[in-house]
Design goal:
about 525 residues; alpha/beta; 4 domains; three-stranded mixed beta sheet; 22 helices; globular
Length: about 525
């Protein structure tokens, strides 16, 4: 074993092949405990500098004091890697890219190797550098949008894709695993065709994370989306780095790798304190702290939930005689990934199983507060979108995106939250009131004729009010006339979807901005 974890020949070879640069591959390595020797066999002659580099890399992995034997075999065959079956040892380990050269498309392998090289180069900084930020670990395309959500579809089925793109500029999705017995294709889960998906990927609306062993995914699906946008998939190691740094920013403790001396002193102080919470924290850390770095190195982002807030929360409930370890660990994955991605998180929620309560507990640990009771829940989205915006799950997804791209999507979740957690009777009455307000807007619009006296009359009234001392009334009264003039003289319809002009129009019609947005989106929806 190594650091209290199983360590077999596969993991030994996998780690060595990740660490040693591509220029030396393929090679064979054999380690003998009996005489503390390493024997490397390469398919080409190595220079003395090459040999020194190999030895230095091995020592950086912790193999000090070994004797190194270097051999050459010009007919050394390429790797013959066997795919690990589901629920077997090694199935969760991130496989070295060198093993995958003969069974993965070029589009995938290139990006996977970039992710692996990033980890090899930045690993020490990720675990200890207090100045490194999560944004430095994300690829550029994942930093552009500030209005994004994360949906974990790796195991559980999720909602129709139309619901998510109605709310957020960018939807980041954990790709479904392809090796489970009940697995569904991405297209079946999200009710979207391949052509539609690839177009949304091209527009930058949908991105993906692949946080498990690459061989657990549908390689054809990955190759398709990467061929459209090479930056649309974030692989496990960058996701792990961004997530660890986000957790570190939130807690100041979880996400760090401590040396042996610091581990001892930290645990000692916590155990000797008279604070129960610190003793529970020490219990949580003591179970995992020794092999934290090793576990993340082996499993990438998949390993994080074992070492951070979920472990602490599980120990708290264990001290009260309750075992919620599995529920907290599985729920923590997607929540912690959303922290690393800087994205809104939708916990999985179904009539048979829900992650909502577990995520509320974890949210309290990471943010220090419980989630608002008005937090929008996944089960409500379709009903609210249908009733408020008349968006249905059967409409063309590209047409829907075209319509909503003209408006500020970030306002839509705020509007839905006003209608969240209502009883059917309360929701029905509130929708009735909304419809009534929208009819009033339409009536006011009819009363404003373009460039005639009805548009000029408020200007005169405003001027009189200004004369009598009501400051600013003249400017407000001018709005209907100026707004109508702009609509006649400009051919650029997009200017009226601008947030500033939307606010002006709402002010002109004496109606709330949110109601105005609902009205405009409804008008654009196909009948």
């Amino acid at each position: 074993s190594l650091f209290g974890q199983p360590f077999n020949a596969f993991e030994f070879n996998n780690n060595i092949r990740i660490a040693i640069p591509s220029k030396f591959h393929p090679f064979h390595v054999d380690m003998k405990w009996s005489d503390n020797s390493f024997t490397f066999t390469f398919n080409k002659e190595l220079t003395p500098n090459d040999i020194d580099e190999i030895i230095l890399i091995c020592e950086s992995l912790g193999f000090y004091g070994y004797k190194y034997n270097i051999k050459t075999d010009h007919e050394l065959p390429d790797y013959n890697h066997q795919i690990k079956k589901s629920n077997t040892q090694g199935n969760l380990t991130l496989v070295a890219s060198q093993y995958l050269r003969n069974n993965q498309p070029k589009e995938i392998l290139e990006k996977y190797e970039e992710d692996q090289d990033f980890w090899t180069e930045k690993r020490a900084n990720i675990f200890s550098d207090v100045n490194l930020t999560k944004d430095e670990c994300l690829i550029d395309s994942f930093r552009k949008s500030q209005n994004r959500c994360f949906v974990d579809a790796s195991v559980f089925p999720r909602n129709n894709i139309r619901e998510y793109i109605s709310l957020y500029d960018t939807v980041i999705i954990a790709i479904p695993l392809a090796d489970s017995p009940n697995s569904q294709s991405f297209y079946d889960i999200f009710k979207i065709s391949k052509i539609e998906l690839l177009e949304l990927v091209r527009r930058g609306r949908i991105k993906f994370v692949a946080f498990q062993n690459l061989q657990r995914y549908d390689s054809n699906f990955l190759a398709d989306v990467l061929s459209v946008d090479p930056e649309c998939v974030l692989f496990s190691r960058r996701l792990a780095a961004a997530t660890l740094l986000a957790i570190r920013e939130k807690t100041g403790l979880f996400g760090f790798a401590f040396d042996s001396s610091t581990q001892y002193n930290l645990l000692k102080e916590c155990y000797n304190s008279k604070v129960d919470a610190l003793k529970i924290l020490a219990e949580s850390l003591s179970e995992n702290i020794a092999f934290f770095e090793y576990g993340i190195n082996q499993r990438g982002a998949l390993g994080i939930s074992q070492f951070c807030g979920a472990s602490f929360a599980a120990q708290i409930y264990k001290s009260r005689g309750r075992d919620y370890g599995i529920e907290l660990m599985t729920s923590a994955m997607s929540l912690e990934f959303s922290l690393g991605l800087g994205a809104h998180h939708f916990p999985f929620e179904h009539t048979g199983y829900s992650e909502v309560n577990a995520c509320k507990i974890l949210n309290g640990i990471y943010n220090g507060v419980q989630q608002s009771q008005n937090e929008l829940r996944e089960m409500e989205i379709q009903t609210l979108l249908s009733n408020i915006f008349t968006i249905n799950n059967d409409m063309n997804v590209l047409e829907l995106d075209d319509i909503l791209s003209k408006y500020s999507r970030r306002m839509i979740p705020q509007i839905l939250q006003e209608y969240a957690h209502l009883t059917p009777e309360e929701l029905s009455f509130k929708i009735y009131s909304l419809n009534k307000d929208i009819k009033a807007i339409e009536k006011r619009k009819q009363n404003l004729s373009i460039l005639d006296l009805s548009g000029f009359a408020p200007v005169v009234a405003g001027a009189v009010m200004e004369y009598k001392g009501l400051s600013g009334a003249g400017y407000i009264a001018l709005l209907p006339w100026i707004f109508k003039l702009l609509k006649v003289t400009t051919n650029n319809s997009k200017i009226f979807s601008n947030e500033i002009f939307s606010n002006l129009e709402a002010l002109t019609l004496n109606t709330p901005r949110n109601t105005m947005l609902v009205h405009k989106i409804r008008q654009d929806m196909p009948k």
